[in-house]
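Most newcomers find our protein records easier to grasp once they have seen one. Sequence and backbone structure share a record, each on its own labelled line. To make this concrete, we reproduce a full record directly below:
***
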Amino acid sequence: MKEKNPNALIAMIAVVAVAILNQSSGVESPALAYIAKSFPETPMTTIVMITTLPSLMIIPASLLFSAFRKRFTLRSLFVVFMLILIVGGVMPAFSPTIGQILFWRALFGFGVGIMWPLGYTYIVELYSGNKQDTLLGFNSTVTAVGGIMWAMLGGILALTSWRHSFYAYFIPIIILIFCTIFLPEPKKTETETKSAQGDGAKARIGYFVLLLVFGFFLNACVFTYFTNLSFKIVDGGLGTSASAGLAQSCWVIGSLIVGVLYGFIMRNKFMKKYAYSIGWLLVGIGMLFVSKAPTYTVVLVASFIGGIGCGTAIPTIVGMIGNVSSKNVAMFLGLYTTMTGVAQFVGPQVFNGLVKTFNQSYGSFPMAVAAVIHIIGAIISFIIFVALYSKQKAAGVQNSAVSK
């Protein structure tokens, strides 16, 4: 079988198309109220697990991704776990008990948990330079569009029956067929030489841990915007739940615009070095203005700014982590995806605890605290990156002098 050319347009479309499944777990969210009515004896905490369980399953799936990558090709992993995703996604429509629904949702979540790092790994292993930046931006854009699409589709299908919302997971069959035909397969990376495994390997691991910490705080704090936006707008007398939905759309639009332009933005040498810090700072500024917004207009503008920051920071840190070591791309990206799942689960719990501890209200307070953490983190990351790049430059000058 002739291997596909990864630089062909159809191959790049297939690579990016994998990302449309990243946010596919939101299909059932609009149908939760109907599901609760069908199972009146079931506690609401159990009903909500239909939405939260897939997110939790992303954690073990991402941890195992590196081990799977060592044994199987990316294309075979895509096919197997897409089938798992489809079966786990559709079967709740035919399940008579909550227990069975939760089982299939867990299986579905495991499939999604493999898709996240798999999509990133395809881009990092197949492409480099500005093409990699461009495709990471498109990956972010497709993920955001997919999230909107799945939620809307689930809501429309749920109008006839909550079970019908799960029919949306028949759509990935089309993606499975298309990507199976056109996805290229990255070549296996060569083992690093012994000279590259000593102090250099330790430095790379240290750098990876640093990026992982930065990513944890970004992901843990950014969810505070989504969990508190409705409280800020409705309880603050700035609008209704529909108004909150529009504000969140402004965030998504900001992220989408940057995703499309990301490859062009990263051609700038300054942005290539400090895009993550700048994006992180914009997230903090946007959330801070939302938390203090006196009018709904300010909320919309600030949400747009936050979305621009998020759309800049996320693909940047994915690219930075993926390029730490060519030998350990799958492992590092799998760990990053695991960390993201942990952060998005732990973050809201921590901020809920702060609200209760300081006897504050949901909405402005937790969002303002998260914004301050974002801003401080962005400044610290900028200082560290400046120091690291200065050290690299000095080392380069010294090596050049020695060679002469």
Notes: Residues 9-182 form a domain with the Growth Hormone; Chain: A; fold (CATH 1.20.1250.20). The chain has two domains: 9-182, 204-403. The chain is about 75% helix and 0% strand.
